[in-house]
Amino acid sequence: MSANAGNVARGLKAAVSNPNNSEEAKERAQQRLNDMEASGEVGSTEAHMAQVKQGHKANLNNPNTSEESKQHSKQVVDQE
Hints:
The protein is mainly alpha-helical. It has helices at residues 3-17, 23-39, 45-60, 67-79. Residues 1-80 are annotated as: Disordered.
């Protein structure tokens, strides 16, 4: 993945989640993002979610994080 492809993917994800964008714009952005993931141009959403889950597991064992943060991480890990 090139740095530019990563920036494009982040912009597309932002466009999809922006409530001010039309449904048509969101659909086009999602389709382009799906195409980029399918071609291997950017990492897949599944890979990203695995990294997020891994980060939450690490947070559970980190003595420097608050109990509130650990509770949130536990909820995320349990949902997966």
